[in-house]
Specification:
It is an enzyme of class 3 (hydrolase). By secondary structure, this protein is an alpha/beta fold. It has a single domain, classed as TIM Barrel (Alpha-Beta Barrel), CATH 3.20.20. 43% of the residues lie in helices and 12% in strands. It is built from 14 helices and 13 strands. The strands form three sheets. An eight-stranded parallel beta sheet has the order 10-9-8-5-4-13-12-11. The protein has a three-stranded antiparallel beta sheet with strand order 1-2-3, with no helix packed on it. Strands 6-7 form a two-stranded antiparallel ribbon. Strand 12 (320-325), helix 11 and strand 13 form a beta-alpha-beta unit. The longest helix has 23 residues, at 294-316. The radius of gyration is 22 Å and the shape is globular. The chain binds 2-acetamido-2-deoxy-beta-D-glucopyranose (4 copies). One 2-acetamido-2-deoxy-beta-D-glucopyranose is lined by residues 256, 296, 299-300, 303.
């Protein structure tokens, strides 16, 4: 656009004006800075907005190679065509072959321009972005890479979980946060922290901590990092990136965790941290309950979403998103019919909550691919043009959900209170009856967590992208 030939002060000013104007024009009507009001996301001064979303961790990676940018454009076009309005993606690639950050504080400009391009395309297609800042797992670096950097600098760190408490590593991470948030997009000219296309920042993909199963270590880290993000970008929303595992704190339902064990996080307690604006869960009943039957997996799914929605409303008063869910297509284990049923069940539960004014107000399936991206297939991919039935289910859901957008948040709240008042009258006296076993041996938990991590690593060998075990 008008960015190519600056010359003299007047021309620069003109360029600046055009940039501001084009930035404003590029923002599709539905895309304004998203805020939070109670359990609802709001936009444009108190109007509700709901999210029908997808994961595409690969946007920056693919867009960093200009000849492949058409795939990013196609993905956004297909997504927008099916009413999707949220993409969750990686704003990190720590070390490795395709680094955004090749060493602490050293950035690859081509990768950054890939992220610039992805953000600009999201904006053009009216799709919000949830940008994740690092990984718990070692795909694209993550906490293990950060700890390795600190060791290379001569610091003695015991395990990858020292990521959460090492002063040196926390310094590296904060520098990454600052670098990304203050980045000025080379396509739009808008700083990331000023761009309403961005729904918010996720501190880490799926924080877990074997070193401290009770969740205290992750808790302290989130309590430090969420306010740090806010100190640089006070406008965007922040979330921790949790999968929803319950921990040791008050109001936690550890018995609902897969295998009933600790993963080093507290769903309620951590989402209460200052600076955390909304809660998240992930949902992989097939992998989490590996070997169990369809009925058990369905029961788990129902309990998982219900209990988190209940706790979010009761203890947090914030919105809740299912930021990852999926079903692995594997010969003899699950076929598309079963996958589509799962998809429908998740989307129906989101819609039911949203329509009833509940806190579960959106989700993002794992993961969207374009046709011809075979090397990124991981068994979870949904390729909209090649998967008519999934595309119909998703498109249908997006349209239904979009009809709920634009309500006055006060009216939604009043309706919810009336509904719950009536509900309480009917159920008065019934107790929630959650129990908690007190004979947990942390050592056994840690062992089981390791076993499951190992299982995830092994199963990721079957997926070429290895980003989603
Ligand atoms: C971080 O936590 C680990 C595991 O609990 C511990 O060994 C280490 O000493 C802690 N480091 C700091 C700096 O507190
Ligand atoms: C779901 O919750 C019910 C009632 O709280 C419990 O009896 C059942 O075991 C739970 N199922 C799963 C799979 O967690
Ligand atoms: C998918 O698997 C289920 C359960 O094994 C089976 O009943 C169904 O016929 C399969 N559908 C297709 C299209 O293969
Ligand atoms: C689309 O949504 C409507 C309303 O809930 C439902 O009746 C219909 O069966 C859905 N169609 C598909 C293909 O999911």
């Amino acid at each position: 656009m008008a960015r190519s030939r600056p010359g003299g002060l007047a021309a620069s000013l003109l360029v600046l004006l055009c940039l501001v104007a084009s930035a404003a024009a590029a923002a599709t009507p539905g895309v304004g800075l998203v805020g939070v009001d109670g359990t609802q996301f709001v936009v444009g001064g108190g109007k509700t907005v709901y999210f029908s979303g997808f994961n595409a961790y690969w946007l920056m990676l693919v867009a960093s190679d200009p000849p492949r940018r058409g795939q990013v454009v196609a993905a956004f076009r297909q997504a927008a065509g099916h009413g999707l309005n949220l993409a969750r993606t990686w704003a990190f690639s720590d070390g490795g072959d395709t680094p955004l950050q090749s060493a602490p504080g050293v950035y690859d400009e081509a990768m950054f321009q890939g992220l610039d391009f992805a953000i600009a395309e999201a904006r053009r297609h009216g799709i919000y972005l949830l940008l994740c800042l690092t990984n718990n797992f070692h795909d694209f670096g993550g906490k293990r890479q950060y700890v390795a950097w600190a060791r290379e600098a001569g610091h003695h760190l015991a395990t990858a979980d020292d990521f959460f408490n090492s002063t040196v590593v926390k310094g590296y991470y904060k520098n990454h946060v600052k670098t990304v948030l203050t980045r000025v997009n080379t396509v739009t000219g808008v700083a990331y922290r000023d761009d309403p296309t961005i729904l918010g920042w996720e501190l880490m993909n799926e924080p877990r901590c074997d070193a401290d199963p009770t969740g205290a270590m992750v808790q302290a880290w989130v309590e430090e990092m969420a306010p740090y993000v806010k100190s640089i970008d006070g406008d965007h929303l922040v979330t921790a990136g949790l999968e929803g595992f319950y921990g040791d704190g008050a109001h936690e339902s550890k018995d609902l965790n897969p295998w009933g064990i600790y993963y080093g996080t507290n769903f309620v307690e951590t989402h209460r941290a200052h600076g955390v604006d909304f809660a998240t869960i992930h949902l992989y009943p097939d992998v989490w309950l590996w070997g169990s039957g369809a009925a058990a997996q369905l029961a788990f799914f129902r309990n998982w979403t219900r209990s988190h929605a209940r706790d979010t409303e009761l203890y947090l008063g914030k919105p809740l998103l299912v930021t990852e869910y999926g079903k692995f297509l594997w010969d003899g284990v699950a076929n598309r019919t079963q996958r589509d049923r799962f998809l429908g069940q998740v989307l129906d539960s989101i819609y039911a909550s949203a329509a009833g004014g509940g806190p579960l107000v959106g989700g993002a399936f794992w993961q969207l691919l374009d046709p011809g991206m075979d090397t990124l297939r991981d068994g979870y991919e949904i390729i909209l043009p090649e998967d008519q039935r999934a595309a119909t289910i998703i498109g249908n859901h997006s349209r239904q959900l979009a009809e709920l957008n634009g309500q006055d948040v006060e009216a939604v709240r009043r309706r919810r209170r009336r509904r719950r008042g009536a509900h309480r009258k009917v159920h008065v006296g019934s107790s929630s009856g959650r129990s908690r076993s007190s004979s947990d041996t942390p050592r056994l938990h840690a062992l089981l967590v390791r076993f499951i991590s190992l299982f995830r690593s092994i199963s990721s060998l079957f997926s070429p992208a290895a980003s989603r075990p």
